[in-house]
Amino acid sequence: MTIHHEIVRAATVVTIGAATLAMAFLASAQEVGIRRGGAAAAVASPVVTDGRVTFRLRANEAKAVTVSGDFGPDVALSRDTEGVWSASVGPLKPDVYVYYFTVDGVRLPDPANPQLKIGYVPSTTTSIVNVPGEGPAFYDVQDVPHGEIRTLVYKSRSNRVVRELDVYVPPGYDANPRQRYPVLYLLHGFANDHHSWHRYGRANAILDNLLAKKAIRPFIVVMPLGYGGAAVNGDGNGIAPAGAGPFGGDFALYERDILEDVVPLIDGKYRTLANRGNRAIMGFSMGGMQAGRIGLGHLDTFSYVGIMSAGLIGNPVSAAVGPDPIAPLAADPAGANERLKLLWIACGTEDAAMAGARSTHEALQKAGIQHVFVETEGAHHWRVWRRYLRDVAPLLFR
Fold it and tell me: Distances from the Cα of 203 to the Cαs of 60, 62, 207, 215, 246, in angstroms?
């Protein structure tokens, strides 16, 4: 069997899971090289030089190979006489990018690259490439005091399932047993999970670095699983309930999980400042919609609300989730403004979510609800959301 056929065969078995899938691709390539007496040399991919990224894939009998990523349009690869396909992009700005290959219509991660972005939906698995700058980036792990990521497994009584969430505690949490902390509930987008904000958003490194600069006060961050009704079996995988709503989850069940299970759990287990003035809820994409609806609908629980790359009105998904969440605020704008310490909305100008974000901004303006609306460059990807967390964190709990 040829290397091309091995790769395509492995790529179709998406149900075995993202990490195992990538290993299968790599194992297939190595196996063919061995069967040919080691004639197939190892392929280095990706290779980063002065901001330019070169991608390579050995697929001797492939007819067409492209590479797609959040760096720009799809790029066609060219084949050499050894059956290795390659293409270069850039120079790119220093940052972390994701990409994948398409081989004769079959999508697969880079079999030569062990760095993977995985999540809740195996078909969205991508490879990761870091384009470094001259010095450490704001999201890089630096030589500063570090907080900790702790995973909690809990029984969601409202959802009637066992679920999992991650918690970031700031540096010095255990060493200062009398200190209490504000809490940010940080929600993820579709196809991600409760690990995504620290795996790919680098939330812990961003906050560690901001704390070292004294740009923020220390606070706890709670990163819950974003699919209402989904159970977690302990390894990070879950199954959305039958008949799930938009994004593969039940919003009403998720809202109940946050309010009835997660907030009481965190206040009971950690040294929190357990009041609305010291609670924030924010998220991106699906999580931005969820954070906006939950936060604005429960200003008795949250006083800081952040919506990244999402809108609350102006798109079919918003209408499917529930009624307009701004209308109740418009009935008493003075009361809403008194309770809201910050309502922060940000979206990239190249993002398809901008229409909903602008509609939400305009509706809030019309209703007389004070808020901050930020338009930035960028589309719907982690490069934007990492910067949003960096920019909004100093505005919290002041």
Answer: 41, 40, 6, 15, 26
